[in-house]
Amino acid sequence: MSSNSFSYNEQSGGGEATELGQEATSTISPSGAFGLFSSDLKKNEDLKQMLESNKDSAKLDAMKRIVGMIAKGKNASELFPAVVKNVASKNIEIKKLVYVYLVRYAEEQQDLALLSISTFQRALKDPNQLIRASALRVLSSIRVPIIVPIMMLAIKEASADLSPYVRKNAAHAIQKLYSVVMAFEEVCPDRIDLIHKNYRKLCNLLVDVEEWGQVVIIHMLTRYARTQFVSPWKEGDELEDNEKNFYESDDDQKEKTDKRKKPYTMDPDHRLLIRNTKPLLQSRNAAVVMAVAQLYWHISPKSEAGIISKSLVRLLRSNREVQYIVLQNIATMSIQRKGMFEPYLKSFYVRSTDPTMIKTLKLEILTNLANEANISTLLREFQTYVKSQDKQFAAATIQTIGRCATNILEVTDTCLNGLVCLLSNRDEIVVAESVVVIKKLLQMQPVQHGEIIKHMAKLLDSITVPVARASILWLIGENCERVPKIAPDVLRKMAKSFTSEDDLVKLQILNLGAKLYLTNSKQTKLLTQYILNLGKYDQNYDIRDRTRFIRQLIVPNEKSGALSKYAKKIFLAQKPAPLLESPFKDRDHFQLGTLSHTLNIKATGYLELSNWPEVAPDPSVRNVEVIELAKEWTPAGKAKQENSAKKFYSESEEEGDSSDSSSDSESESGSESGEQGKSGEEGDSNEDSSEDSSSEQDSESGRESGLENKRTAKRNSKAKGKSDSEDGEKENEKSKTSDSSNAESSSIEDSSSDSESESESESESESRKVTQEKEKKTKQGRTPLTKDVSLLDLDDCQYSCICTNKNSRAASSNEWKRTSCPLFLSKTALHFW
Amino acid sequence: MIHSLFLINCSGDIFLEKHWKSVVSQSVCDYFFEAQEKAADVENVPPVISTPHHYLISIYRDKLFFVSVIQTEVPPLFVIEFLHRVADTFQDYFGECSEAAIKDNVVIVYELLEEMLDNGFPLATESNILKELIKPPTILRSVVNSITGSSNVGDTLPTGQLSNIPWRRAGVKYTNNEAYFDVVEEIDAIIDKSGSTVFAEIQGVIDACIKLSGMPDLSLSFMNPRLLDDVSFHPCIRFKRWESERVLSFIPPDGNFRLISYRVSSQNLVAIPVYVKHSISFKENSSCGRFDITIGPKQNMGKTIEGITVTVHMPKVVLNMNLTTTQGSYTFDPVTKVLTWDVGKITPQKLPSLKGLVNLQSGAPKPEENPSLNIQFKIQQLAISGLKVNRLDMYGEKYKPFKGVKYVTKAGKFQEDVGGDFFSIGEYHLTAAHCNSKGRKLQ
């Protein structure tokens, strides 16, 4: 045991010592609890001493060993006091390891963990940005509720840090804060209404965001697009019928686009998203490619989704886990739109070296893609699969052949013949599977197949697989009038072996007996009664039950009721043929690429992909609709307040923006005027909420003044002067014409401010800066709203931190600190404390 | 997103655990073990498992299972891709991704995991950045560290993280400035009994080894860029440039990395460099069979085909094989029933062949299916697709770098099936051939 304590001594200590240590543990550990504990104590004693020594090297050794213990999942919590003392160590490596320890155990030892807090607070002011960042990270990972206020303070400071790295960490930390505070709170699904302002920015920056962020953003934007744009498939509905031909014959995309344009024009924002995600299909990260693929699948016009197949097929060269997920998704897609993957049919050919789960998935896709044109090639391919040494796969292939046979009428007979040939296969699993599939096929076409049934009856002598035996018996029973000579003989044989059969088979013997009794009682009466007697005393109560039921039904006696008259009809009714369907049929209601889709169950936290809205694609209408949605989501009373606040901030945002571009002093004044406006606005909204109906005029005037405020500010601005004021006027007009609440007008302003940024973003490098600044502003504008809003902000801030590195921070950081942070924090605090 | 990670070895020991949020008990892995037991072999353990409170997403790499614990909806590929990135990083740091290596370096592993994932969300996954944060272990460094007391944790923030190009560190300096590109192509093919190609495509990658000082801006152009059918890029490549001019323009990361991978799939472009003549027959009612295969060159563009290996998974009833070969050596493993024939080079004058007797279990029925052959080979100085690098230009730095390109063609998944009849059409089916051509050329 003591050797174990040295096992993580030093990397250079070599593997041997470690392994010895490991062995020692594993052999000793079962030797009794007492020994284990005593040695643990001893070891920890010695670790404590090392931690208290003056030498950094000893401390480092001790910490390394402790981390080793954590990694093994052993309990090292009693060392907590000794470790915590070292949190102030000057040695950066010791410090990091102590952090690792703290993150692991602080939750269990909350009181002691508080001891370390002051050190963190000091570390947060460290000149080294790396230390600041990691202190913040640990602080936010500690998960001790009491420190939440401290955390908020720290995050506030960090978000105004000069180092973007620290800010990025702050963004992560905010999330963590929330996970502590609102342990049960789901990530609010209504945050979709908060994406609006950032939508274009996100689209434009997507390519430059780091790859993990891309995946998250794309998934989010997919959901967003489904609520905000009308379906591009609308007019496709007419085309739906000949969609197949579409893909097969016509590759000319332009023609299609032209066709589509007449009845339906895509929202430019919708187009923007589709266009900007396309390059990401080329990403080396499979998750990104899959994310784009599902975006195209869910929101692009059907005619354009074709481009994703090539990239998905490329992913099939990747490792088995990626293949597995990608194939599953392709399987779902290929059910609905065969044409997409037909050109890549051969990429789904099975290789003998594939794992079985990959093989079965490929088989599934091949089946989905089968049609009259390619079926002969496919059958030839299947024929090699049937002979595979992997019997599970061979069985799956036989099922597949059955499905092809039912789907494509031309080959039904060929398949049936092939399957019959397989009945003489040497492998029992293959034969059994064939029997089961043939049974289903025969059931579907009740033509004369006497020969096949006879052949199968003979098989009963040799085959032992219960499912197959049961299938044969059922078939004979069903067709007992077509094979009048064989059926009773089979029953005779079965009566003999009844007791040794599987339950499944016994049930079918009972069925067969009953059917024969009804059709041919002369020959089989005694046999059936014998079988019923055997069944009566069977060990399995299902069988006893069934026996009783059948006896009452078919054997006439004085007690038998009216039902027995219909016994024949009951037993020999025409039965509906089973449908041979793809197991992926029911998965399409899940968003592709999600965990829920893979598991085919709704995973925790899965957000339903909403249906396309029915609203006309007019962008301004869309904006209105957006706000209405927002209203629905927010509690009734709150909504107005929120909206008015929104309006105010979006205004101040524009002011800030214009002044920013001219000079610093102006920005100062701009934000001031914003604050003034704010108080006015708040009063306004109060009125609004109190006297809902009558206050319209008041609010109108309030808004008017706000707008005027803004316009004056704009006149000052040198950079944008004209165009901006024009914009403002437009807004004004719009807001007047639309007979609506503040909410609407504010949203229009938002969108127009966005479109400004959009139009500016023509030249690449500049646009980035501009949008980034914009983003900052929007952030400021939005942060003080409500808790929901700030939640998204966190996301937003995180992304911005990721992608806005070269941001100039001069004046804006001050503003940020002054306006948004305290407000945001106090709001959250209010909300939760 | 990712809650916890467990590393499990082949014998089912959990030898490392790391939690990014609240601690999840090891017992969650029992569900994984259950699934593992159900699966016939390690390859068939489902990558995504649902348990009552968590979801387990796992990958299998180098005889280790990386099992991550997830609590809410997340794109599974996101996690899988990340886990592979973790395994790649271990490989990169310790030279191998094995239990021993991870146990030896448990502290570094912990530090790495801490950096790579923050609160379950990937933070730093670029190897260039990680290496600046945490220096990889070397014997020299551990000696120096123990003497001077310095550590392997960087105390400054990696510069790349703050620049616009997060994959490259700043202040790179070399005395010899070099840029090498390896164009490696693999042929995947399935060839049927008659020798005609059922399916063939070329999978290519360009691996780069760039050791250039400063911030070089490179552009690589091809003689025939249209060949590249479907390409995936390293994030450093400017996509717009490629779209408009078909030129790869990029500021490279420092060191080794994969620049692009591509696919050339249109059938007629794929030349199959080797052919195999074979006859494998088993007599009814006797416990032996005949085995005879010969390999010859075909469409090899005048280059030598080397490193040929033929692998055959013989049917289970085969007990042993007595073969003679004209070239190379063969082994037959009676447990796994795998026949491996290491051929070496092909000389057209004398084609290598392998023939002899197959002993079957007495009394067992003869195998119904003839096995498929998997073939590996290598052709130096040839990219079988015909892809050629035109030139490499460097901007942004003054010095003259040393530039080189190497071409290799390899067999990828090259399979031939020697099948029987089912639907009355006989076919023989070669699953995958890999060609790979390498050559080095100076410009």
SSE blueprint:
The complex is a heterodimer of chains A (833) and B (443).
Chain A lengths: L1 H4 L9 H14 L4 H20 L3 H17 L7 H5 L7 H14 L4 H6 L1 H7 L5 H13 L6 H12 L4 H18 L14 H10 L5 H18 L7 H5 L2 H7 L3 H9 L6 H10 L8 H14 L7 H9 L4 H17 L19 H14 L5 H12 L4 H17 L4 H11 L5 H17 L5 H10 L6 H13 L7 H12 L5 H17 L1 H16 L4 H14 L12 H5 L23 H5 L19 H15 L2 H27 L1 H27 L5 H21 L4 H17 L4 H19 L3 H19 L4 H17 L6 H23 L1
Chain B lengths: L1 E8 L4 E6 L9 H10 L9 E3 L4 E7 L2 E7 L5 H19 L4 H6 L1 H11 E2 L2 E2 L4 H7 L5 H10 L29 E14 L5 E15 L5 E6 L7 E4 L5 H7 L1 E4 L4 E10 L9 E9 L5 E10 L7 E9 L4 E8 L3 E5 L4 E7 L8 E8 L9 E11 L8 E7 L6 E17 L14 E2 L1 E3 L2 E2 L1
Parallel strand pairs in B: 8-23, 21-24, 21-25
Antiparallel strand pairs in B: 1-2, 1-5, 3-4, 4-5, 6-7, 8-9, 9-13, 10-12, 10-22, 11-13, 14-15, 15-20, 16-19, 16-21, 17-20, 18-19, 21-23, 23-25, 23-26
Protein name (chain A): Adaptor related protein complex 3 subunit beta 1
GO cellular component, one term (chain A): endomembrane system
Main location (chain A): membrane
Q: Summed up, what is this model?
A:
Chain A is mainly alpha-helical and 833 residues long.
Explain this structure.
The complex is a heterodimer of chains A (833) and B (443). Chain A has 833 residues and is mainly alpha-helical. Among the domains of chain A are: 147 residues, Leucine-rich Repeat Variant (Alpha Horseshoe); 136 residues. Chain A is built from 42 helices and no strands. In chain A, α29 packs antiparallel against α30 and α30 runs antiparallel to α31. The longest helix of chain A is centred in the C-terminal third of the chain and has 27 residues. Chain A is elongated and about 100 Å long. The N terminus and C terminus of chain A are likely disordered. Chain B is an alpha+beta fold. Chain B has 3 domains: 147 residues, Beta-Lactamase; 125 residues, Immunoglobulin-like; 107 residues, Mu homology domain, subdomain B (Immunoglobulin-like, Sandwich), CATH 2.60.40. Helices cover 16% and strands 42% of the residues of chain B. In chain B, the strands form 5 sheets. In chain B, strands 8, 9, 11, 13, 16, 18, 19, 21, 23, 24, 25 and 26 form a 12-stranded mixed beta sheet that branches. The longest helix of chain B has 19 residues. The radius of gyration of chain B is 26 Å and the shape is flat. The C terminus of chain B is likely disordered. The chains are: A mainly alpha (833), B alpha+beta (443). At the A-B interface, α2, α4, α6, α9 and α11 of A face β2, β4, α2, α3 and α4 of B.
